[in-house]
Specification:
The structure holds two protein chains of two kinds. Chain A is mainly β. Helices cover 0% and strands 51% of the residues of chain A. In chain B, 0% of the residues lie in helices and 46% in strands. Chain B is built from no helices and nine strands. In chain B, a hairpin with a 2-residue loop joins strand 7 and strand 8. The chains are: A mainly beta, B mainly beta. At the A-B interface, strand 5 and strand 10 of A face strand 7 and strand 8 of B.
Chain lengths: 120, 110
């Protein structure tokens, strides 16, 4: 069974940093692009960042470019999101999602999300 | 990276059909056959209903169907059931490795 499980969320002050992790199982992790999507409380979905299977390509939304860094460790079947210089508007539930194959094909497996709250 | 446009709400009675639209531009919806639709129930993760405009993953009922014309994609839910109530989001590949979502549509089964 395909599963992705996020962790690492929490309360952080503005300007602080946080690292999210996403543990994957049930599929050949290195063969699939992976994506982070966030959802602010009561709001819609927002694409954050994506990474290719071999980690040779990374992509970011303008809202996080220069502050967030996506990475993956294919030997550990784990996806990461390093978030620096956090702002109040980054407060959201962060989902990890697996691509059908690559990003343009769609996202067919989602975790339950990890909550990030940026507040003083 | 502007959000795709969806109606904020839609509704229908059990057994009826309802169509939700998703309007973008030639840089996203109109430029790629890469539109997806997701269903989200309260407190739950999104679930993929449709990928690549009209492909249904295994396990998704054939009551759900997708189409696209120009810069507008559509999701049709036929034979509405109570469990179809929830939020629906479209997304499209936007080129240069980006993805853009719609603002979401709240579907109410009357």
């Amino acid at each position: 069974e395909v599963q992705v499980l996020e962790s690492g969320g929490g309360l952080v002050q503005p300007g602080g940093s946080l690292r999210l992790s996403c543990a994957a199982s049930g599929f050949t992790f290195s063969s699939y692009s992976m994506t982070w999507v966030r959802q602010a409380p009561g709001k819609g979905l927002e694409w954050v960042s994506s990474i290719s299977g071999a980690a040779d390509y990374t992509f970011y939304a303008d809202s996080v470019k220069g502050r967030f860094a996506i990475s993956r460790d294919n030997s550990k079947n784990t996806l990461y999101l390093q978030m620096n210089n956090l702002r109040a508007e980054d407060t959201a539930l962060y989902y990890c999602a697996k691509a059908v194959l690559v990003l343009k094909d769609g996202l067919d497996a989602w975790g339950q999300g990890t909550l990030v709250t940026v507040s003083s | 990276q502007s959000a795709l446009t969806q109606p904020p709400s839609a509704s229908g009675s059990p057994g009826q059909s309802v169509t939700i639209s998703c309007t973008g531009t030639s840089s996203d919806v109109g430029g790629y056959n890469s539109v997806s639709w997701f269903q989200q129930h309260p407190g739950k993760a999104p679930k993929l209903l449709i990928s690549e405009v009209s492909k249904r993953p295994s396990g998704v009922p054939d009551r759900f169907s997708g189409s696209k014309s120009g810069n507008t994609a559509s999701l049709t839910v036929s034979g509405l059931q109570a469990e179809d109530e929830g939020d629906y989001y479209c997304s499209s590949f936007g080129g240069s490795g980006s993805l853009v979502f719609g603002g979401g549509t709240k579907l109410t089964v009357l």
